[in-house]
Each structure stands twice: as structure tokens, then as C-alpha cells.
Specification:
The complex is a heterodimer of chains A (312) and B (732). Chain A is built from 13 helices and 13 strands. Chain A is α/β, with parallel strands linked by helices and 312 residues long. In chain A, strand 1, helix 2 and strand 2 form a beta-alpha-beta unit. In chain B, a hairpin with a 5-residue loop joins strand 10 and strand 11. The radius of gyration of chain B is 74 Å and the shape is elongated. Classes of the chains: A alpha/beta (312), B alpha+beta (732). At the A-B interface, helix 1, helix 2 and strand 8 of A face helix 1, helix 2, helix 3 and helix 4 of B.
């Protein structure tokens, strides 16, 4: 009887393995829908992604866009998320990037160094294609002015961001804060705009700076952001993160990338990608759109050529 | 039996059905259980995979600030893979509690990712960085613990399920063995029972039907149970009914056979198709007798062999029509065995027996009928000839007064007889209305009697005798009218002439008697007057008066004489006379005398005599008197002179001599022309009016005729016709 039981058990297990293998195969098949294979792409271009938000979410956000551009332009578009805004400039050459979605300040910093050519930037469903920098604080801490900030903890985003660093510098200069490192008890770089907002919200910092679009998105998802934080200052608008490519990129690819982005909203597939991306369309972006950034940099007294953009 | 079968099959079916349901249910349950086990294994593997991924990410976190630190790309890849596996676990079907745990786990994974992202991106002091790293690490460890727990739970469940499944499958195995072993035995047993239940009574039924087939009378199937018993009873009843029907069919066959054989007409059944169409398949005795063959001899023949060549030509066409379904009736001629040809009336049609086509033909010898028909036709023709030969106009009307028949004489004058055409005065009635109407309206149809009418039709100037006779059917019903119209003009004229002659005779008798009575006194009176006139003592004027008296008496004597001549014309003395000679003599004497005596202008006389004129049998004196009267009349009609043409000719067709006297005198008025031959009718101032009446009488006494034509101011022509041959020339 025990032998029979053992034999039966073995038989059952054998059946299980066979069924498991077939079901896994079936699961694999179910996991991915077979798609018609496009013709092999001619080359691969690498686009860098700045850590505007949580890096893994950033990767997921840009993945559909990268696939769309790959299909339309018959090139393999791969994204590389970077841990710092400044990394995109540092690693542009070492990582073999062909372009990146640059923040406005990052573009300005890297324009001349990297020989960048802006192509297009996203326009939000509400028609806005710019963002502003915000300086905010926890409401209950009673911080309303620069004077109230003294001796507090200020969280930036990144030295190479407009909203997360450049604008606060201008604010500090305007409000007589010559050396913020001495003015505040501690300053640090959150790395992403979201973290900057959350750090202030969670009390890890007293004040912070971040993009208004990120602030609004987080406030829409969590009412405590708007309820517990107070906006102290706002910068002039600057262009959203635009795709800029190296000037010596293959002309046809460059042209295709630009035209594809600009025409996405007229393509049903493109519309779906835009919707997942959170934009209505892409609009043309040129050097002249960055005037406010240059003005802020000048206001902050920065020498863009020698500006140290690393967060060390 | 049916119930038993149904019950047995139901039980059998139920057993199989239940067994099948059990097997299916068991298989489904086993499959489901196996499926669950496989899923649990899948889950286990996924969770193991997730654990591995989490640990991998943790290791990346550990090595972050070391020389073995992994690149951003690799870290991102590992984190994305971990996230993907976590989502895959969530996509599998779970119970609500497990699903909730998995969702919690996914939230922890997302929180872990957030902390990882902070670790990767934050640039702060060592303390803050360390704090973030520890938070991330802690989150990772919590996640590892959580996933470990889930894996352990899955393993435990898997073990339990496996044990349960083993037990269930064992039980199923046992039941299947029983079913597999028992089912054939059960089926065999049931089959044996059914076969036995069917075959035994069936055998008895078969035996019984064999007996019924072999035995002429009697023979029954023994009583059986259930439906077989009913079947046996039904077969027995059917056999009895069949025997009855066979008896009826036999009887009917005998009757029809008798009818066939004893029929007076020849009946043939012929082949309609095949290679011998028309071949005689069957024939009755009448057919054999009619054609002078035996029945056996007829069966060797075809119907075309009995036809004459003329009839045989039509045979294919007739057979063709019969095959199309027509019923034909034709008159043909057949030939008997001895060669005699006789007419037959054939009626034939298509007959189908047992899918084979035949022709049923009934022939009737119509020799006698033909003869009768011919006689009838001839009789009808004879009657037609007689009907048309009748000179009276006979028309036959129906009740609606439409002409249904008219003879030749009536057809020639049909327009006069139809409808209102015949508008003559009804003889004696004095009213003018259509004779047909009169006859139909108030005459024969109403009274049912024959009505006779005499009328004068002015348009044709004829007298007609109309008789209307009711037309009756053989049952005595009035069905119309028959008109017989006879032209009675000649008879009427003859009657009038006779009437006039009688009148004349009476007048003549009267006149003769009167003349005879007057003549003597007149003679005495005249003698007396002459004697007195001769006396010398009579003055001259009295003598003139007496002379006038004498002349008047002489005039009366002439009148009396003429009257006597008219009333009692002398009997003619027939002898052959030459008309030309008498004419010539009369003309010569009269015209000279008259001219000289009267002092009148002379009248030219033209004589146109046929020199070859035949002699006629006549009285010369009367002829002379006739010619004298006519010449004197012509003379009187030409007081200023003129021409008198006298012509004689011979009418060879009528066999008569024609004498024509034409003058160029003043002529006779139209209204007087019809009366000039009447006695005492005159247009002269002085005359008795008897001259032409006497002349006509004399001509008619000589068997001749006299006619007159005249035109005022142009002249008159008298034409006398005298027969050449007098026949039996007895006097008047």
C-alpha cells in the first residue's frame, strides 16, 4: 500500500511537472502578445533621462515614447536614466548618448558643451508647455519669508535644475541670502522634485524647491501636499523638458524624431502614447524659448561656462 | 413489452448516464485539482523568482558604494524585473485574501522602489544618506520576509492539495475499475434478456405467418403476450380480411369477365408500347364474331391487320394521341377475315395496368347505322328539293319572329317578307298593317288556328294570298309560325275579268232584250215619221223637224245595233285568213270614204306588212270590223290629218301574229287609258262608247289580245295579237 502510495505520488508529480511546463509556456505566451516583427532597425540611438521623478517611474514613463519613436523612425531608441541631472552632461559622451530629455537648465548648461539642438517639448493637456519653480515650506512651521528660513533645513533638487536650484539661488540673492550654506542649518539635494516635496511634507526638511508641475501632480494625488505645504515663491516660466539631440546626429534620424514628435497628436497610436506620457502634444522648441533660463542664470550671477553642476 | 423494453433501456441508460456523469465529474475534478496544483507550483516559482529579484536588488544596494557597485542601468533593470515579477504574481487568480496580500506586497515593492530611487538620487550628508540607505535596506528586508512568508504558505497549501488529490485519484481509480468491469456484464445480461424476450415471440409470429401463407383456409397464429399478442391478433384479422377481399375480387373478376365477353361491341386490349404497338393482347367474343376470326386467331394479330389501308394510315397518329392521354373516337373501316369491309366506330383510351400501358378499344359495327344515315340524308335532301320547288313563298318563324327557314321562292323575295316589309292592305280588312304582324299578332299564334289573308302589295303591284299557320312541336307546343304567301295576281285578274265578262253578259242580255223590244217600235216610229214627212201639206220647217227625228231614230238604231253587237257578238266563223289582205282592203275603203265623205284632211297611211305572215284562223268579217273600228278611231284622232302606220309581224316564239296600228293623233289621256275598253266609255262628243268594247270582245272571241299605248299629242298605238294556231277551233 505504501509502495502504491509512493508510486502514485511520483506519478502525480510527473503529471504536475508536465502540466507545469506546458502552463508556463502558455503563461509566457499569454504574458506577451505576439506582435508583428518590424524590420530590423538600422541603428540604435540612446536618449538620456534626467531624474525628474522616481527613476524607475521615469523609465516606465518614457518607455512607450521610446518604443513609438523606434517604430516610426526605424531606429532602436533606448533610454538611460541617470541618477543626477548633471550626469546627463557628464555622461553624454561616455555613455554614448545621442540626446536626452533635458531640463531647461540642464539644456542651457550643456548646449554649447555638447552641441545640442532642441527638437520638441511636451505640451500638457491644459495647453502649458512651461513650468515654474516653487519654493514651499510646511505651513504649520510659520515660514513665510526668507527671514523665517534662517537656520532651517532647505532641500534642493539638483544643482542642474532650474526649479530645484537656480530659482532658489535667485530668490536667495533677492532676499539677501548671500551664502545659503551658512544661512540654513542644512541643505541637501533630494535628487528628484518629488522627493523634495515629500521631504518637506514629511518634515525631513523645512523648505524646499521643486517644479510646480510636480507639486501640482503630487497635490492632486495627495491632498496633504496642498493642505500642509505653503508656496512662498514662484519663478517665471521656463520650457518643459525638451528632447535635444547632438547636432551631428544623422540628419534623417533627427528629422524623423522631430517630425514624429510634432505629429504624434495626429496619429491614433501617438495619441495613446501621449496620454500615457501625460501630454497633449509635442511642440517645436528652439533656443529662444530658453530666454528666462538665461535671465535667471544671469540674475543668480552664474557663469554658465564654469558653473559646477554636480551635487557633490 | 414496450414498457419492459423502455424500463430496461431506461435503467441501462440511467446506469450508464450516472456512470458517465461520475466519470466526467471525476475527471473534471481531477483536472481541476491538477490545475490548481500546477497553479500553486507556478505561484511558488514566481514568488521564488520575486525573492531572488528582491535579494538581487538588495545586493545592489549593499554594493552601491563599493568597487563591486553595479551600474545604474543594471540596477534599474533588476528593479524593473522585480517589479514585473511582483505584478505577475498579482495578475494570477487568487482568493480574495491572497489577492489582498499580494496587493499589499506590491505596495511594499513600490515603496521599496521609492526608497531605492531616493538612495540613488539623493545628494546629502553622510548621515542623511545613511538614513535613506537603511530605510531602503529595511524596506527590502521586510519585503524579503513578506515574500518568504508567502512562499511558505504556498508550499504548505501545495502539500495539502497534493495529498488530497492523491486520495481522490485513488478512489476514482477504484470506481472506474468497477464500472469498466461491471458495464459489459450488465450490458450482456440485459442484451440476453431483451433478445430472448424478442426472439421467442417473433419466432412464433413467423411460424404463424408461414402457416397462413401455406394454408388455403384457416391457419392462425397462437395467442402471445404483450405487443406480440396484439401483433398476432392483427395478423390473424388481416388474414381473415384478406380472404374476404380475395373472395370479393374473385366475384368482381367473374362479373367483369362476363361483361367483357358478353358485350355486344367488340372490345380489344392492345399493346401501347414496346416493339409491337397495336398487338392484340385480349379480345372478347363479339370482336371475334365481328371480324370473322376466332379469339385465338385475333391474339396473333395487330389491330392494324384489321384496318383497311386507309384506316391503317391513321393508326400511328391515333395511337400517339392515345398515349398522350386523349380519349379518341373515330370512324374507321375494318376488314373481316373473308375480306368484307365494314365501317366501325372506334372509341379508345389509355389503360395502365401494373405500370404497363395498354390501349382499351371498343369497336362498334355501324353498317346499319350508316345505311340509315344515308337514307336520312337522302330523305332530307328530297324534302329540301320539294320545299324549294314549291313556288309559293314559305317562311318558317320561331317564337321571336325570326326566320329559321325559307324556301327558294321566299329567299328570293326575303326582303319583302321580313319584318315590316310586307305592308299590303289586308283583303277585306281595310287596314294597312304588316301582314306578318297581322298574322302573328292577332292571327295564328293567338288563336292557334290557320289564318288566311289576302292583300295587295303596291310596291310590286301584286295580289298576295298570305296564310299564317301556327308551328307546333311534337308535343303540341307553339314554337313559331309558318307563312305561305302565294301570288294570286293572275287569279285576281282572271276573276275580275270573269266578273266583268259576267257583268257584260248581264248587261248584254239586258241590252239585247231592250234592243229587241225597242227595235220594232223604233222601226214603226221611223216609218210613221217618214210617211208624215212625205205628205205635201207638211210645212218645210216641220219637214226638217221630222227629218231630224228620223236621223235621231237612225242614231238610236245604230246604238241598238251596237249594243246588240256588244251584248251578243256573233259567233266567229273560223277559217284561214290572210290578215294583210283584210287590212289592206279595210284601209283602202275606209280612208277614201271617210276622207271624201267627211271632207277631212287626208291621212297618210304607211303599210308595213310582213309578206311572209302566216295565215290565222279567224272570222274575216269580224276581223274587218275590228280593223274598221280601229282605223276609224285613228281617223277621228287626226282631224287635221296625220299618219297612220299599220304593221304586221310574226312572233315565232309565241306562235302569234301581231298587228299594230299607230297614229299620230291627239292621243289618249292617261286617266282614260285604263277605261277605253269599258262599255259606254268615250272621249268623243258623239259616240256610243261601245266601239272599243266591241272590238276587244271580238278580238278575245278570236282567242287574241288587244293592248293600247298612247301619249297625248303624239299618238296612240293599238296592238292586236292573234294566235297562229287556234287549236280546236270551235266557236265562242
Amino acid at each position: 500500500m505504501s509502495l502504491l502510495r509512493t508510486m502514485s505520488r511520483d506519478m502525480v508529480r510527473l503529471c504536475f511537472i508536465a502540466c507545469l511546463a506546458s502552463s508556463l509556456l502558455a503563461a509566457c505566451e499569454r504574458a506577451e502578445k505576439p506582435v508583428p516583427k518590424p524590420p530590423p532597425p538600422r541603428e540604435t540611438i540612446y536618449l538620456g533621462l534626467i531624474p525628474e521623478r522616481q527613476v524607475f517611474k521615469q523609465v516606465e514613463r518614457y518607455r512607450p515614447l521610446a518604443k513609438y519613436l523606434s517604430r516610426k523612425c526605424n531606429v532602436r531608441v533606448e533610454t538611460k536614466v541617470l541618477p543626477e541631472y548633471g550626469n546627463v552632461i557628464d555622461n553624454f559622451v561616455s555613455l554614448g548618448l545621442d540626446g536626452a530629455f533635458f531640463g531647461s537648465f540642464t539644456y542651457v548648461l550643456g548646449r554649447q558643451m555638447l552641441g545640442l539642438e532642441p527638437l520638441a517639448r511636451p505640451e500638457a493637456p491644459d495647453g502649458s508647455s512651461t513650468y515654474s519653480g516653487l519654493i514651499f515650506a510646511r505651513r504649520e512651521r510659520g515660514i513665510r519669508t526668507a527671514a523665517d528660513m534662517k537656520g532651517r533645513v532647505f532641500v534642493f533638487v539638483d544643482r542642474a535644475t532650474t526649479a530645484g536650484y537656480l530659482f532658489p539661488l535667485v530668490y536667495f540673492r533677492k532676499h539677501g541670502i548671500a551664502d545659503y550654506s551658512r544661512y540654513f542649518s542644512e541643505t541637501y539635494f533630494a535628487g528628484t522634485h518629488e522627493d523634495a516635496v515629500y521631504d518637506v511634507l514629511r518634515g525631513k526638511a523645512d523648505m524646499g524647491a521643486a517644479k510646480n508641475t510636480v507639486f501640482a501632480r503630487l497635490a492632486a494625488a495627495d491632498r496633504s501636499v496642498a493642505n500642509e505645504l505653503v508656496i512662498l515663491a514662484e519663478s517665471p516660466p521656463v520650457p518643459e523638458n525638451a528632447l535635444a539631440v547632438r547636432k551631428d546626429l544623422d540628419g534623417a534620424v533627427k528629422k524623423c524624431l522631430k517630425e514624429t514628435l510634432l505629429a504624434m497628436n495626429e496619429d491614433p497610436d501617438g495619441k495613446m502614447v501621449l496620454e500615457s506620457f501625460g501630454a497633449w502634444r509635442f511642440i517645436e522648441t528652439t533656443e529662444r524659448h530658453y530666454a528666462h533660463v538665461y535671465a535667471l542664470a544671469a540674475e543668480a550671477g552664474l557663469d554658465l561656462a564654469s558653473y559646477r553642476y554636480r551635487n557633490d | 413489452m414496450k414498457k419492459k423494453i423502455v424500463l430496461g433501456l431506461s435503467i441501462f441508460s440511467l446506469v450508464f448516464f450516472v456512470g458517465g456523469i461520475y466519470i466526467i465529474t471525476t475527471i473534471k475534478t481531477g483536472t481541476s485539482t491538477l490545475d490548481n496544483l500546477i497553479q500553486l507550483h507556478q505561484i511558488e516559482i514566481l514568488r521564488e523568482h520575486l525573492l531572488i529579484q528582491i535579494k538581487r536588488v538588495q545586493s545592489a544596494l549593499y554594493l552601491k558604494d563599493t568597487s563591486h557597485a553595479r551600474g545604474m542601468d543594471e540596477i534599474v533593470r533588476d528593479v524593473m524585473a522585480m517589479s514585473g515579477v511582483a505584478r505577475t504574481c498579482l495578475d494570477c487568480h487568487h482568493t480574495a485574501s491572497v489577492q489582498a496580500r499580494l496587493e499589499e506586497m506590491n505596495r511594499h515593492v513600490e515603496a521599496y522602489k521609492d526608497t531605492l530611487s531616493r538612495v540613488l538620487t539623493i545628494r546629502a550628508g553622510a548621515e542623511r544618506r545613511k538614513e535613506e540607505e537603511e530605510a531602503a535596506y529595511h524596506a527590502g528586508e521586510m519585503l524579503v520576509t513578506e515574500v518568504d512568508g508567502m512562499i511558505a504558505a504556498a508550499n504548505s497549501k501545495l502539500q495539502q492539495r497534493t495529498d488530497v488529490t492523491l486520495v481522490m485519484m485513488k478512489e476514482t481509480e477504484l470506481v472506474l475499475i468497477i464500472l469498466v468491469a461491471l458495464a459489459p456484464i450488465l450490458a450482456t445480461a440485459l442484451g440476453f434478456v431483451f433478445v430472448r424476450a424478442f426472439s421467442e415471440p417473433l419466432g412464433k409470429v413467423l411460424e404463424g405467418t408461414r402457416r397462413l401463407r401455406n394454408e388455403a383456409t384457416g391457419g392462425e397464429i397462437e395467442p402471445l403476450k404483450d405487443e406480440f399478442g396484439e401483433l398476432a391478433r392483427s395478423i390473424n384479422e388481416m388474414a381473415a380480411s384478406l380472404k374476404e377481399h380475395m373472395a370479393v375480387i374473385d366475384e368482381s373478376e367473374k362479373r367483369y369477365r362476363t361483361l367483357f365477353e358478353r358485350a355486344g361491341d367488340a372490345i380489344f386490349i392492345l399493346e401501347a408500347e414496346g416493339d409491337r404497338p397495336g398487338a392484340i393482347v385480349a379480345a372478347n367474343q363479339a370482336a371475334a364474331v365481328m371480324h370473322g376470326y376466332t379469339k385465338e386467331e385475333l391474339l396473333d394479330l395487330r389491330i392494324q391487320d384489321l384496318d383497311t389501308p386507309d384506316s391503317a394510315k391513321n393508326s400511328p397518329a391515333l395511337i400517339g394521341r392515345i398515349l398522350q392521354g386523349d380519349l379518341i373516337q373515330a370512324e374507321l373501316t375494318h376488314r373481316k377475315k373473308d375480306g368484307t369491309v365494314f365501317p366501325v366506330e372506334v372509341r379508345a383510351g389509355l389503360l395502365e395496368l401494373a405500370g404497363h400501358k395498354y390501349i382499351l378499344a371498343i369497336d362498334r359495327d355501324v353498317t346499319e347505322r350508316k345505311k340509315m344515315e344515308e337514307a336520312l340524308v337522302q330523305s332530307k335532301q328530297d324534302w329540301e328539293d320539294v320545299f324549294d320547288s314549291i313556288t309559293d313563298m314559305i317562311t318558317v318563324y320561331d317564337k321571336d319572329r325570326a326566320i329559321v327557314r325559307a324556301n327558294r321562292a321566299a329567299s328570293a323575295n326575303l326582303s319583302l317578307l321580313q319584318g315590316e316589309a310586307l305592308r299590303c292592305s289586308v283583303a277585306g280588312g281595310g287596314t294597312e298593317q304588316p301582314a306578318v304582324e297581322t298574322a302573328a299578332g292577332s292571327g295564328s299564334p293567338g288563336t292557334g288556328r290557320v289564318m288566311a289573308y289576302e292583300c295587295y302589295e303596291p310596291r310590286i303591284g301584286r295580289y298576295l294570298d298570305l296564310r299564317a299557320i301556327p308551328r307546333l312541336s311534337s308535343e303540341g307546343q307553339l314554337i313559331g309560325l309558318i307563312h305561305i304567301v302565294r301570288d294570286v295576281t293572275e287569279r285576281k285578274r282572271t276573276e275580275e275579268a270573269l266578273q266583268r265578262a259576267e257583268q257584260m253578259r248581264c248587261v248584254g242580255e239586258l241590252a239585247a232584250g231592250l234592243a229587241h223590244e225597242i227595235k220594232n217600235p223604233l222601226a214603226g216610229l221611223k216609218a210613221s215619221i217618214e210617211m208624215v214627212a212625205e205628205a205635201e201639206s207638211i210645212p218645210d220647217e216641220d219637214r226638217d223637224i221630222l227629218a231630224r227625228g228620223t236621223r235621231e231614230i237612225e242614231r238610236i238604231e245604230v246604238l241598238v245595233r251596237d249594243l246588240l253587237n256588244f251584248a251578243r257578238p256573233p259567233k266567229p266563223q273560223f277559217r284561214p285568213v290572210e290578215v294583210n289582205k283584210i287590212l289592206d282592203e279595210t284601209l283602202t275603203f275606209l280612208l277614201r270614204k271617210e276622207t271624201v265623205a267627211a271632207g277631212k284632211e287626208p291621212v297618210a297611211v304607211v303599210k308595213d306588212f310582213d309578206e311572209q305572215l302566216s295565215k290565222v284562223m279567224g272570222d274575216p268579217m269580224q276581223l274587218k270590223q275590228i280593223f274598221t273600228n280601229l282605223v276609224l278611231n285613228a281617223r277621228d284622232a287626226m282631224p287635221q290629218g296625220g299618219m297612220l302606220t299599220v304593221r304586221t309581224s310574226h312572233d315565232t316564239v309565241a306562235g302569234s301574229v301581231i298587228i299594230q296600228l299607230s297614229d299620230t293623233g291627239k292621243g289618249i289621256k292617261r286617266e282614260a287609258l285604263d277605261r277605253i275598253f269599258e262599255p259606254f266609255f268615250t272621249t268623243k262628243q258623239r259616240g256610243t262608247g261601245l266601239g272599243l268594247a266591241i272590238t276587244k270582245r271580238l278580238v278575245e272571241g278570236l282567242r287574241g289580245t288587244i293592248a293600247v299605248m298612247s301619249e297625248e299629242a303624239k299618238g296612240t298605238v293599238f296592238t292586236i295579237t292573234l294566235p297562229v294556231s287556234q287549236g280546236n277551233m270551235e266557236g265562242a
